[in-house]
Structures are given as C-alpha cells and as structure tokens.
Amino acid sequence: MSAVFDKLDPRTDGTALTSTGEARDFFTLLKPRVMSLVIVTALAGMATAPGTVHPVIGFAALLAIAVGAGASGCLNMWYDADIDALMVRTAKRPIPAGRILPSEALAFGLTLSIGAVLVLGLVANLLAAGMLAFTIFFYAVVYSMWLKRWTPQNIVIGGAAGAFPPMIGEAVVTGGFGIRSLVLFAIIFLWTPPHFWALALVKSADYARAGIPMLPNVAGPASTRRHILAYSLVMAPVAVLPALMGFGGLIYLVVSVVTGLAMIALAVRVLRTTEGDAAHKAAYSLFGFSILYLFLLFAVLLAENSLGLMWALPKVIG
Known about the structure:
Subcellular location: Cell membrane
Order of helices and strands: HHHHHHHHHHHHHHHH
Membrane topology: Multi-pass membrane protein
GO molecular function: protoheme IX farnesyltransferase activity
CATH class of the largest domain: Mainly Alpha
Keywords: Cell membrane, Heme biosynthesis, Membrane, Transferase, Transmembrane, Transmembrane helix
Number of strands: 0
Radius of gyration: 20 Å
GO cellular component, one term: plasma membrane
Distance between the termini: 48 Å
Shape: flat
Oligomer: single chain
Structural class: mainly alpha
Helix content: over 70%
Largest sheet: none
C-alpha cells in the first residue's frame, strides 16, 4: 500500500508543501455532475419505494448519500492522479494541476466517506448505511484501484457503483429493497457502458496514453460500436419496465419509449459513422444525449410519484 502513496508524492526530500487550492477545487474533487445524477436517482428510489419517510430524515439521508458519492469521486481522483496527468481531458483536475495535494485529497475523501456513512446510519438505518459504505468501497477500490487498469470490462462491472443509489434510497424508506429499486439499478447498469464507451471512442488516444484498457483500445472501434448498440437495445425496453410494473405512469411511458428509441437511433448512427469528424460527432451526440436520457427517466419518475402527476396504467408485470 505504501507504493500507492509514494507514487503520488510530488516530492521526496521532506520539503513542506502548501496547497494553493480554493474551496471550488475541493468541490471539484467531489465530481458535482456525478453527484447531481446520484441525487436524482436516489430521490427516485425513495419516491418509488412502497412507503413514506419523514421529510427531515429524507433530506438528511439524501445529503449523506450525495456526500458519500462525492467522497468516492474524491478518492477516485486521488488514486487516478498519475493517469489524470497524462490525459488532456483530466490534466487540469485539482490534483494533477498541483492545486490540491494528494494527501489532502485522500484525507478529504476518507473524512467525507466516514461521515456520510455514519450520518446515514444514524438518521436512517444500518442497511442503507452499509450499502452506502459498500458503494464507496466498490467505486474507490474495486473499480478505481483494480478494474479500471486491468480489464476492458471495467465500465461494465464498475457501473454497478453508480447504479446503487436507487437501492440505497429505497432502503432509507423501507429498511430493505425490492424489485422496484432493482429495476432502477438495472436501468443505470445497462446505461453506463454505452454512455462511457461513446466517450471512449473519441478519447481513445487519451486512454491509450494513460495505459487504461478501454474497449476501443483493446477490442477496436468497430467492436465498441457493436457493443454500444447491443447494450442500447437491451437498455431501452428495460427502461420501460417501471410503467409496466405500476410505479411509472403515462408520462413516464411516453418519455421512456421516445427517449429509448432516440438512444437506439443514436447508437445506430455511431455504428454506421466510422470515419473522421463525423464519427466523433456521432459519438459525442450519443454521449451528451445519454446524460439527458438518464436524467429525464428518473426526473419523471420522481415527479410522478411525489408531485401527484401519476396517471396510472394497468399493471402488466408484477
């Protein structure tokens, strides 16, 4: 383990170092865009759970989940600082840019991780806290320290970390989790590979420079494009399940079908467009739309179940 610390030490002569980072740099370590998606997906898990929770407890639990997600992002940036420095997309992050010391980032991430888990255990229940702790461990250790640098399936397996928040949200409300949050887990899990592989198609040179075995660098762009389409074809019908199972309504059905077809159409475009700037534009379009896609699905579920906008459909499954 000492090698993990040593490789990130900017000096070895014992000279004292002073961070030049500002509050916004520490906030950047939390990956705020990822945190925003975690908040929406965890809220959807709470809203669709069969039960209710006191608003104060719900807010405190949601805050703990968001902080836990940010903490795992911070630990990821701490461990990945060496490869981040080699990639154009990440070289300006606070640690490789020299604004935050690795030791500061590690202490910040660990403190937030422990605090978030403890708070969630106190305000909600031990299952929710244990699931949050496991999620942080899975992302920071299993994905960041092992999968990311070892296998081209890093995104597929590591995607589980980003899919846990709805299950944690349901656990906050019910003290357990069931088929509803498992379906939401499946949607995020299946969404993750096409989302990140679309970016990897464009940034393959960056990943190659850093020695990360992303699918385009190992299996090639053509195979990656086929994988993107295959996952999209499975994900789109799975995303309709909440409407068929009764915890998504008419609005959700329309949004999930329309946006799912759009995801498939963009994936087909990526498959067919293989050369030059047009190929990059197609991959970027899919990457950008995929973020909107996931946000819309969970935002609509949240609105239907918490704002009285549910026009229930006949339950087909469950």
